[in-house]
Amino acid sequence: MRGHVDADALVACTRALVEVDTQNPPGNEQAVLPVVRHLLEPFDPRFEEVEPAPGRASLVATIGTGGGDRPTLIVNGHLDVVPVDGPGWTCDPFAGRLDGDRLYGRGTADMKGGIAAAVEALHALRRAGRQPSCDLAFHLVADEERGGALGTQALVDAGAVRGDACLVPEPTGLAVCVAERGLMVATITVFGRPAHGSEPRRGVSAVEMAAKVVLALHAADFGGPAHPLLGTPTCNVGVIEGGSGHNTVAERCALTVDRRLLPGMTRAEAEAGLRARIDAIDDGDLRYELEVSVYGEASELDAGHGLVDQVQAAMVAALGQPAPVIGMGFTTDARFVRNQAGIPAVVCGPGEVSQAHVHDEWVAVSRLVDAAAVYAELFASFAPATAATRTS
Ligand SMILES: [Zn+2]
Question: Cα–Cα 20 to 30 A to 8, which of 19, 88, 219, 259?
């Protein structure tokens, strides 16, 4: 199958997507939809758009009979990219410059290259004289980089996420990712009682109290067994700011913490875990407020699920060997598909995670070609699989 993938066409497709600025914020994914429609038009799709806020559009393109007589495989890819910040870029982030095997530009790895590989897979199948075994529903969505409320979440709310399984071509180095940790960001504001700096024991220092909170939370062991792919939940105190001057006992100090969570852990449990550790601090002067600003739950697919076997079979057919099965420390839109729509999902795409969100982002063209070949094999062989076919 790899010989049927047109690397030049794949580069051109990726470049066409990269050239449209969809930095989020503000997003403006609507601007790239004409390009996406044009790329998919040869396969005669039915298009449906969901636009929950002006300019924040997602596209569902269903290829196949759509008559319900064949299974449906969803390909979920986000069209937004993280902002190009600072002067660190040495090339135009929206030009798609090719240098040897490297294609540079914002979104080449995360994840316009993955989307392009899925589109090129359809062409490769055609050139090989083969057909998809299923309907293919491309969900090309907004807002993944800022939590997905205006993208995949909006599609779920609109009842548009329907299918038997889902492939998310986010950058994993073509490893098969079946589990991802959740994220909770919380701000803990600690309150003190000001006094003159020459007499620190006359007041209550919010900085001193916050220091005790830091020691209670940072890199703490929150108990429970480790997940085989995701390890243990973590807590990083990433930001601290407080006090008004050297000569005043601090009245206020705020900490921002980043918690990474395991599947099955609810927002309430994650918040309660923080409060329990703070409340266990033996100091009657400690007063605080805790506010959660970001929450995305963890998700996973049993590594023994039949979908994983089918992806691995496609790997072997296209590349000669199976890929590592991994978990990832951060969230993708796969969590909406798994947890809310109840559809099995794997994350597997070209590009390295280390290339996502960095200056001079690039993807290897050879890996785009590998991905397109794997996807073509999967599209040609996919059949719904249910329970675990083996123990993981
Ligand atoms: Zn991404």
Answer: 88
State the distance from the centre of ligand 1 to the C-alpha of 18, rounded, in angstroms: 14
Residues 124 and 195 in one domain: no
Does the bond joining 111 to the residue before it have cis omega, within 30 degrees of 0? Answer: yes
Q: Give 59 Cα–ligand 1 centroid separation in angstroms.
A: 17
Same domain, 43 and 186: no
**pLDDT for the residue 69:** 83
The answer to whether the CB of 353 falls within 8 A of the CB of 171 is yes
Domain that holds residue 287: 182-296
Query: Alpha helix locations (H) across the chain?
Result: 7-18, 33-40, 113-127, 152-157, 206-217, 267-279, 306-319, 334-335, 365-381
Rounded to two decimals, the pTM is 0.90
Q: How far is the CA of 109 from the centre of ligand 1 (A)?
A: 8
Q: For CA atoms 97, 318, 310, 300, give the dihedral sign.
A: negative
Q: How far is the CA of 81 from the centre of ligand 1 (A)?
A: 7
- Does residue 336 sit in helix, strand or coil? helix
Rounded distance from Cα 139 to ligand 1 centre (Å)? 14
Task: Give the strand order in the sheet containing 362-364.
Answer: 98-99, 102-104, 362-364
368 shares a domain with 343: yes
Asked whether residue 139 falls in the same domain as residue 195, the answer is no
| CATH number for the domain that contains residue 64 | 3.40.630.10
Q: Could you tell me the distance, in angstroms and rounded to a whole number, from the CA of residue 332 to the centre of ligand 1?
A: 7
pLDDT digits (tens, 9 = 90+) for 151-188: 999 999 999 999 999 999 999 999 999 999 999 999 99
